[in-house]
Every structure is written in C-alpha cells, then in structure tokens.
Amino acid sequence: MEPRLLKYDFKIEFYDQPKIYEIPKKENETQTEKAKEKSTPKEKPKEETKTEETEEKKKNTNEPKIVLRTTDGIHIDIQISDVYTSNNYICAKQAKLTIWNLPIDFNDNLQSGNIVTIYYKKFAEVKDYDFIMSGYLGTPMSTDYPSGDFSVQLEIHLASKSNYFHRALNPNQFQGMTVENAIKSAFPSRNIINMTYENKKRIINESFCANTPVEFIEKITKKYVQSVRTDIEPKDHTQLIREASLDTTHTECNYIFTNYVAIQTETEKKEETEKNKPIQKDKNPKTETPTTDTKEEETKKDTDKDYEPLEDYLLEFIPQQEVTIGSNRNIKFIYWNAKIMYTHKLKVGDKVSFIDGTGKKIKGTISQADAVLSNIGECSLILKLYDDANFLNIKGEAK
C-alpha cells in the first residue's frame, strides 16, 4: 500500500432556486431537438456532436452561478449540527459556513433561498468530491475584523427554512392508526423507523390530535417513541434537480424514530418463554439444546458483522461514557461520546463498535451525528452512541 496524504478539501456550489423549476420546459425542448437531430443526416464529425451535446447537458443541469474550492486557496470553516425547538425537540439539521477573505461585495451575488451544496474529498490525490449536504441559504452576513480579515457567514437550512416542521398536518387526528402509519402520515417519505414489528403495529387508542409535526413529536415521544433524531439524506445535485422538476421539496432531512428499549424487552420475553416451557418426556432434551445454542451462536455471528469498527475510521480517542437516568432511578441508559475523522459513510442508526480502555468490545447505535470541518483545521465527525447493552427486564428494573 502506497502512503496517501490526508488532506481535506471542500467545494461549495451556489444555485439560483427559480431556475431549477424551469427545468421541465428545457427537457421538452431538448427532446424535440434530439428528434430533429435524428431526422437530419449527420454532417459533422463525432467530436463536434459530442461537444454540442455536452453544452446542452450543462444548460439543462443548471450550472452553479458560484463555485468555491479550497484548492484555490480559500479558507472555509463548516459546522453541522441539529436545530432544536423551544421544547428541546430536534426539528432539523443546519450548517454554518464561515468563508474567509473573499471580495467585500461577495454577498451581493447571493440571495436568501438560494440552494447551496457542499462536497468534500479526503485525500490530496483524489479528484472526485463526495456529497455532504444541500440546503436553503439563509440571510448572508459579513464581518470585518480589526486585524484586516474579512469573513462571510452563511447558514444552510434543512427543513426548518421551508417550514417543513411547522406545516399543517392533514389528517391531524391519529386515533385508531398504528404507530407506523401515523409516523408515515406526519412525515411522508422522510421517515426511518427503527422499531420492532410489535411497536410499529401498536394501535393508538387514545385521542391523538396534532396540527403540526412539532405537536406530533411532542405527543408521540411521551408514550410510543423513545428517540427522534435527524440526519442528512445523501443526495447529489443531479437528484436534487430531478426532484425539483416534479415540484417536490428536495432538501429535507430524514427523521429517524427509534425505540431502543422495546427491542431488548422483546428478546427478554422470548428468553423467558423458552425457560418456562414445560419439558416433554417423549423428547430428548440433550438433542434439543445444541440446536438452540447453534442458532443463537449463528445470530450472534451475524450481528457482529453488522457492527462497523470505529477504529477503521481513525478514532481520535477512546469514547467517553455518559449515563442518563430514565423515568425511574433504577433505570439508567449508557451513551458514548466518540469523535472520528470525518466521513460521509456513517449515518444515524448505523451499528458501530469500538474497544474501550479495558479491552472490551462495546457495541452501540449512532443516535446523533454532528460535524466540525475545516480545510486548515479540525475535520471531525462527532457521534453520540447508544449502548446496545442497555435493556430492561419485564418488571421494569434495570440490569
């Protein structure tokens, strides 16, 4: 293996939002032009026709009006974090960009509502960029410093800027629905449900009225869902334009509904039912026990493969433990705070593992992911992990 130079570089593209919604007309025009080209004989060589097609494709894909690259000597700082409501419920993702020493009139070319996409590459010899996020631009701001430096502060909003989290729900009464159907109705095509089959099909019996997604999350987290988190949906700008041509909101983030405790209590119920089964005299218990053990071993091996080791992503330090108390003093949940070199491959809900200070393998689920990025400073993915060893017994006592 040849040594590779670890060097983060970023590319930021700015698009005018109104131009994106004119794409369907251009697509129709290109179809008619292509039909005319097929009917007419080919007089030009292949090289010239290719250049014409590429120029047409560039026009149709709506090229960005501004492109900033750190390889050109620009200093960029990026922070990606969650946005909370007044009741401390997570409602969206937000990125804050600080771009240094640009022309003073740079903000004159930007407008609130423009679409911004952020890309990155991790190694110096790599030419292709990977997608980080895309969202709506907030109000551009600038700051002059006594030292002579000049910075531009930009905010990129997902879901919150387009009032996705405060829109009116229809229907707004969820009584009689299953938890799964209620979530899909409130967050269509933006939901990821990490629950067991029993919890998904649990019927909401009481009156459950929510006029906005804010009210929906406030009520559903009191009884049916333990955790609601957000994460960025991996989409590049070409997918963004395709969805924009259909008049759909395309920069929203995913809402991940998770019930950790329910998964563990269900496995405990299965174990207890197996223990309480009466032993039949006709059957030989010695021949039956190895089959159950082998099945359990196979499932354990399969689950071990599903956990991504954080050491493979350049774990910066051993994760620190965090203990939170539940509804009862006897109920405690363990979380781990980890920091790795930034990567777009890990998302909320992924299974990861690491080796703690005692050499024990800890398995957890990513419940929150933030990022601190800079082309001349820190580039880290900050993770909050839910320890998969957390579970409760049927009596409600923590173990």
UniProtKB/TrEMBL annotation:
Pfam families: DUF693. Residues 22-62, 267-286, 293-305 have a biased composition (Basic and acidic residues). Keywords: Plasmid. Residues 22-64, 267-305 are annotated as: Disordered. InterPro entries: DUF693 (IPR007800). This is Uncharacterized conserved protein.
